[in-house]
Structures
1.
Amino acid sequence: MEGGGDSFGSSTAPLAWHDFLERMRQPSAAEFVKSIKRINIFSCLGPDYGSDLSIALSGTDTKSSFIVTFSNRAPDPEKDSTAVQEFLENMEGAFRAHTPWAGSSEEELESAGEGLEKYVMTKLFNRVFASVPEDVKSDEELFEKMSLLQQFIRPENLDIKPEYQNETSWLLAQKELQKINMYKAPRDKLSCILNCCKVINNLLLNASIVSNDNPPGADEFLPVLIYVTIKANPPQLHSNLLYIQRYRRQTRLVSEAQYFFTNILSAESFIWNIDGESLSMNELDFQRKMDSARERLLGLSTDSENQDNQANLDVQDRKSENLKANRNSDASLSMKDHVQGSGQDMRRDSDVIVDGKPVERVQSISDIEKKGAAELLSDDELNKKFQEYPFLFARAGDLTIADVESLLNSYKQLVLRYVALAQGMGVSPETTLAQSRQPPSDIIGSEEHENVNSVVNDNENSQGISKTSDDVISENDHPEALDIETSEKMTEKTAVDPNDGLEVSKDEAPRQPENA
Amino acid sequence: MGCSSSLPASNAGGLSNINNGSSDTDSKNFRVKLVLLGDSGVGKSCIVLRFVRGQFDPTSKVTVGASFLSQTLALEDSTTVKFEIWDTAGQERYAALAPLYYRGAGAAIVVYDITSPESFNKAQYWVKELQKHGSPDMTMALVGNKADLHENRTVSSQEAQEYAERNSMFFIETSAKTADNINQLFEEIAKRLPKPASS
């Protein structure tokens, strides 16, 4: 049952994503492709595709009963989760028995299962992530609580011994956790948590060696994880954890991965219940600190009060009806529903977190992005749209010195467009910049820069990971958010074409000659 | 102090540890989740490290830290038990989180420090907690650690033994520092585990 090793390994072993797609492209995989594609096309799973799947696999057409459009059904996390778990289980069973996987090793089958999970969940993400109002509300509340706590909590409040205190290095762990919203696949999100834990453990281990103390156990680990979680305050943490719990294939959320996942669940639970006593503080003192943290937060985010905040957003809404593209955007009245991806840059500097306004404004940009992405998906001329960006599918190794100039030009163009766009949409980036002590073009640029970088597959983040937590993620199988987005779009396009099957765009989008 | 001393682990009872992380789980080879409970500073993680060290497999994929470790024991009846050992934070403020960890555990080790009566009280709290909320067929062990510090003993082994008997637990005193009784502890737990037909 456990296959060839530790389950932590299976969560982090290089995922043969391309191998998966490669095999799905073989003619013998046509039935699989068909059954999976139905999910893609309708973005849904029927209630009893288990049996339908076998029919699909035996070659009978089952169009009508197989899929009930998800969007016509009210989201039901319990049912959705069971449905996905069963689907993955059945498909994994089917892989075992059918070409092109028949006779494959356990490892190959495992990796096919991983590939399928990632593929399916990337498709279903928008449909199932934070899909019920309770989850959205919990996200907001948890985010707010952490944004208050992080202003005054000290390591001592959590029993972190002085010899293990190392706030600077903990930033590395925070950074890993903050990546959680850059990914859609449960495994990738889980990897962010495991990487965060791994960084913490390495730091603790080093500290224990330096101070000649016992090797650190849970007494040392959990408090630091809680502290790091509060400081990182990744948006929608609650939904992320539920999502992993529900949609990470249960047989792969075991052993070490399960242990560390339990730790972050327990960190969440602790944070929900934090009061004066749990921080060894006088309750009155605790309340006073929470109040003044709240004042500081509001004071920085608006001129007067909370209402201002809302009015502000209303104006933005009128300026652009696009802002409501995201079904969660009702929740965006406060600064909770944070941008995925770009939030990461904002959060690196904890001073910035205190600030509500930029976050809220960035939120709007994110909504526009989401709308744009949705439109792109339905665009027949998709490939043409990307021809302007010759480096989108390039790898670091492909680049030559001569490319630097054109890359820089493209980058500048992109930044100018971005800033102009933001300005035009009334989501002026200046506020953000004023708070962040960085020159304007820098912070706006850095977001684009990272995205571009990540597509080029040579980003500093990945290198950071490999430095701090070596083999946990390999750069290629853990693409950055935009990468996933892009290949997903392309896949969706190409999936309709029977000849191309599920192939990602890597071959279809050759580098264009520089024409900018 | 302590558990990092380099004495080899004693290996009594004719049983041996094996480094087999790759066996399939079946009726002869099964795995069990074991949760460690006890006040902070009683040496929970030291006990586990002592158990795992010596038989440590450098190729093991377990790399994240000492709060989770796994180790496979071979028993005389040629079954193997893979322990997946979950450490918990022992500080008072984290006590309410323990159920998240012992849920689904097949075995629990409740540790106290024989030089600390407070830690023995805390151990009794955990025993009650497990009896109330843990799985009913959980195999439980009461462990008095730091037996090497017997000059400073404040918890008599007889008292602890009696308490353990009243609560149908297995009791043993260990020293993670000298490795005394560490393997015996895990072997005894392995023997007492209800053996599933398959898992």
2.
Amino acid sequence: MKRILAILPLLAAVVLVQLLTTWTGTQFYLTQMTMAAYYSLLIIGLCVLMGYAGQISLGHAGFFAIGGYLSAALTTRSLVPFKEAALVRLLDSCGLLHAGKDLYGAELLVVTPWAAAVFAVLVAALIAVAIGIPVLKLKGHYLAMATLGFGIIIYRLVLATPWFGEADGISGVPPFHLFSGVTVSGESSVRIMNYYLAWGVLLSGLVLLINLMQSRIGRALRAIHGSEEAADAMGVNIARFKLQTFVLSAVFAAIAGVLLTHYNGGIGPSEAGVMKSVRYVAIVAVGGMAHLWGAMFMGVLLNFLSLRGVFGSYDDAVFGLILIVIMLFAPDGILSLLAGRKKKAATVQPVQQDGEA
Amino acid sequence: MSTELFVQYLFAGITYGSIYAIVAIGFNIIYNTTGIINFAQGEFVMLGGMIAISLLSFLPLPAAIALAVLLTMIIGALIEIIFIRWLKNPSVLRMIIITIGISILTREAAVHIWGENIRALPYFVGNEITTIGIMGARISPQVLWVVGVCGVMVAVLHLFFRTTSVGREMRACAANRLATILCGINPRNMVTFSFVLSAGMGALAGCVMSPITYSQYDMGTGLAIKGFTVAILGGLGNSGGAVAAGLLLGIIEAFSVSVVPLAFQDAIAITILLLILFVRPHGIFGSGEAARLKAF
């Protein structure tokens, strides 16, 4: 409960940012804060996988893209030509389809955002299970290369499939009416509501993960990270816990993809690119691997700066540099540098707590 | 499929295959002395081609290539000395992330120096329409250059590891690091050497392939993935296996063009990589016994 109460100052900060931007007339910052919050949702999921379970993934942009692209394609690509197909009629009778008119007044029949979102997240979870079972048996370089390979396959599929818009991506994704009065959309009239919605989703995810890491599952994951053999000997089902974490982080990525795609009104192939996956890994590393707060904070900060265009044409280079510098000088994250000073002071005391060198 | 078409695809496969083999051997050299997979391996190939193209405006072709290879070797040494040499027992995860960071930085430096344009060295002999006939197929002489240079590189490397003292010291370092130190060899220097060697090989391959496959700032990642696939397929650390596996992958890719769309060609290599990792992580040519000593 104490750990959950730590959310309260953050909540206050979220509200403060909104009020500040309103007073100073700089509400446009909220748009990037909203997007940064969705990216951070993916990042805290990846943080659990990398930091707590100790499994690297260089393919998380792939799961983001599965979520984003599926919900974008289903809510924009018209099903009119397949109107007579049994599946389409079945979906229609379940109320999962939405008929309307497109820009030119032609008949339009698309899947409703809710159905598309649920379907997209389910597909991402299923793919995570199918990929995770063989991939998570691998370690180190092999795991890194296999997940990188998965990411590249998704990128290539997106680029080569006309249904996913090839190099153009998908635009004109309709707003997502979550429930009455709450809509995920990039329109400036609902900007403040979307800001709170994104942060609400992010903080709910954070609370969920913090609780999870304090539970039996969290302890099992840390045991696996420490030593798989030892964890196995203590009766931890390694394969199951690793897979569950992988799927959980994939679902977080897919949800982030769905919501951000509806917010932006579109998605492009760069969202599935390798650089995006590397960027997420970099942010988790800067935040300090097994540090959900650090990952979330860095996720919001770095994504916000990047989205504001602070790094200019050096955007990718900045993330590469961050990655190297952090791994060379502070492999436990930036926050560890502050904590490191305290630790040094503590080692002066005569009693050594453990055999750590 | 007619004989001519078959030979045509076969040569295309061998050309790409020998480049994949060189990249894979570059992975192997560094893996053997350090236990690290250098994710920036593909960037050496890109640097070799790009630097040679820039030098061509001042120097004749052979000198430009020689200087480009030399410069890439120096860059390889610098990368090792600046980022890797002074780390004490870094974890695998840390090394993966550092080499990925190096690869991104190199690529970003390249895009700011050379831009996003596709560039190419001129053909070594003749031009793009010069061909020689082999069994009815029309082959560019550059293809023979690629295959020949890659073949010579593999042979020279083999002799280097068997006969020279530095080569023997590098192999000793791969076999047992502690025993090497006791024999008075500095393994850190051997690691630097291995970076220099694989940078040089990558750069030379990058130069000979440039007229056919072109050079671009972002070619490294794709090559690294395929080189890694080949290295795994041939058994990590096994250079003979890498040559066989490289040719195999190149030929599979070349013939796949007649079955699947070109856009999915990269996906084939990656699918093979995933299948191999799932089913037989010690590779087709590697021994399962030796693989048990490695951490998959």
